Amino acid sequence: MKKFEKGTVIFRQGDPGDCMYDILSGKVGIYAAYGTENEKLLTELSAGGYFGEMGLLDKAVRSATAVALEACEADVVTEAEFKDFLAKNPDKVLAIMQQLSQRLRQRTQDYVDACHAVYEVVENEKKGKPRSRNLIEKLNEIFDVYNEYEQMHGVIDTNWYC
Fold it and tell me: What is the rounded distance in angstroms from the CA atom of residue 156 to the CA atom of residue 150?
């Protein structure tokens, strides 16, 4: 078990994904682009929530930054302990799967929304209509988080679009 004071950065986007956290008390915020002008709170988790499992499962770097929003305690589960943790806590297996499913569903919806926004821009340009201010703001919001993630991983920069 590990304790974190309010405001403590538990891990940063881009750090190695070598463990997961099972929140026992308190609240943790998961952020994209933490500490930048494009910072976005993706979710808040409290007792019973989990975070860091994606990096542990796929051995990839952290896709977001975790920050203690209030003093909290969490069990730290390493890769070596993970299978044993799951075997001893079958109810938590389901909870982790449900949480991953919810995240995937939300990212899928974000993707669909982005596709619709881009389609609207393309259709308006075909018709000679100017881009609407709301649409440009929506696209910029989508691309702000995407840019931060993709720049970290050395992929394309989408700032050219809007």
Answer: 6
Query: Rounded to a whole number, what is the largest CA-CA distance in the chain?
Result: 62
User: What's the pLDDT tens digit per position in 21-42?
Assistant: 999 999 999 999 999 988 989 8
> Which 3 state secondary structure label does DSSP give 137?
helix
Give all strands (DSSP E) within the chain, no chain letters: 2-4, 9-11, 19-25, 27-32, 40-46, 50-51, 65-68, 72-78
Look over the chain and give the mean of its residue pLDDT values, rounded to a whole number: 83
pTM: 0.70
CB atoms within 10 A of CB 139: 19
Phi, psi torsion values for 150, nearest 5 degrees: -70, -35
